[in-house]
Amino acid sequence: NKGLHMLSNLSLTEVFELLEEAQNFADGATWSPKRQMFVANLFYEASTRTKFSFEVAEKKLGLEVLNFSAETSSVQKGETLYDTAKTLEAIGADALVIRHPEDAFYEQLEALNIPIINAGDGCGHHPTQSLLDLLTIRQEFKSFQNVEIVICGDLRHSRVARSNAEILTKLGANVSVSGPKEWMCGFAKTYPYVTMDEAVKKADVMMMLRIQHERHDDGMALTKEQYHQQYGLTIERERKMKDRSIILHPAPVNRDVEIASELVECERSRIFKQMQNGVAARMAVLKKVFEG
Ligand code: CP
What we know:
Layout: E1 3-4, H1 12-26, E2 38-43, H2 49-60, E3 64-69, H3 81-91, E4 95-100, E5 116-121, H4 127-141, E6 148-152, H5 159-170, E7 174-178, H6 187-190, H7 196-202, E8 205-208, H8 224-231, H9 235-239, E9 246-248, H10 271-291
Helix pairs in contact: 1-4, 1-10, 2-10, 4-5, 4-10
This protein binds phosphoric acid mono(formamide)ester (CP).
Phosphoric acid mono(formamide)ester (CP) binds next to helix 2.
């Protein structure tokens, strides 16, 4: 049992099983392991939603939570990720939840005997965010077949975009992309490109992404106001969206940049529903990991 590194590593049956389990937890189901189990949460990058929803999920499942802070640990003395993870395994952690800035950091932890749950690797993948997004879309549309998803914005730096584009396509949704062409990298070769004005007319799901300023070496060519007008979900664009279409955003949100501030809690927005679903999705992943 190697945990969960990417959602696209799972079969579609396993993805649907996780979604069923997550929905059960969202509806109030309970589960606990048969013996005392320890989970360590190692966040080498900032997080609010993922870190705390994992912690709530772990506590709801009766797991013992070990919170690790890179700033106050022996990482400050130069200890590597491998040595840190191996140490926690030796101390008695039964699973590790890790967010790390390096793409595919989990590959260097292959020798460990405990499962690793990826809570976000660099610009790679964010499988539990993807699972909670799938849960939110499924609650709305019941199926993924032919649901029109437009992923908008900073795709180049987005692990959420990568995870979601792959799995949603496998599940039968139609994925398109939108945003500055220089931020599309490989995406525009695989998925149709639409302008934001086309996107709002086409989408059942407008999946907005945060501009990841911390991963931009070259800064932004446009001002925030210019970006909002050209590539943002403005109030005018939201009015042109289809009936029953919804807005997702993994958050945190750059208000009035990728999305107008007034739209964050508008009727179409499922942004806080996504966060609520994050707890249930992570409970499902932890249960799967501990059941082996
Ligand atoms: N969506 C998400 O991963 O948020 P955090 O960075 O706050 O965990």
